[in-house]
Input
Amino acid sequence: MKTRRYFAFLLLILSGCGGAVNTPLTPKAATQTTVQARTVISNIQTATGNWRSWVQLPPNSADCLTPCSGTSIEEIFKVADPSLSGDATMFELNPASPYADALFSAQLIGQNSPQTPDSGHTLLPTIHNFIYDSYFYVTKDSITQVLEFDISMYMNGAGMIWGTQCNHLGDGDWDIWDNVNNLWVSAGVPCQFVNGWNHVTLNLQRESDNSLLYESIALNGSTYALNKTYPPGVADPSWWGVTANYQMDGNAAFAANTTYVDNFSVTYW
Output
């Protein structure tokens, strides 16, 4: 949706760093490996212990636990079909009102991250680059209003949300998140996904002053260089960590919707 954001829930999900090479994400097959100074967290969709979820309701997109005023959401792991790897995850939104949203957040580093708690606060200050890479399966594009793909980072009172959403049934463009004014801004490049499997890749960067650089977005083989920079927002100094988010936004007819995610990875360095 064009006007919403989640800050309240982040107090619950952040703080930490550490983690060893080739250490499995709790409790299953997602793995973390370091190659040439880049660390890749793979198979994030399989890490059942890392995911948290909330319903967000208009007009203020306040977070609440499911069921929320009749709206429910669900995750089902270990899905073999449809799947590319044989181990996809299903995400489901059953809205009871127009434009209700389902927010799913994987805790990768910091507070509430099982595998990389960073209790000494030493890892996050070294991270300046992220690649968000995921395959997602759309069951019915005619009812899928918006799909959102984010990296969030919180450190020393700075709130950095690299928010990107495919505004599929809206203006048909990619939107990016302005952390200072708390609003979506059109990136000026088209975004249309298809029924079946789609592939999204985001290249993102944290500048030395914590400004957020949106470098590029790729969808289904089409890559768009953005090179747009926004200042960071303000966050509670106690928040510390990195999350990868996937969100489904409901349509005006509040139609039930199901999507799948597979081969989901985040690379950082």
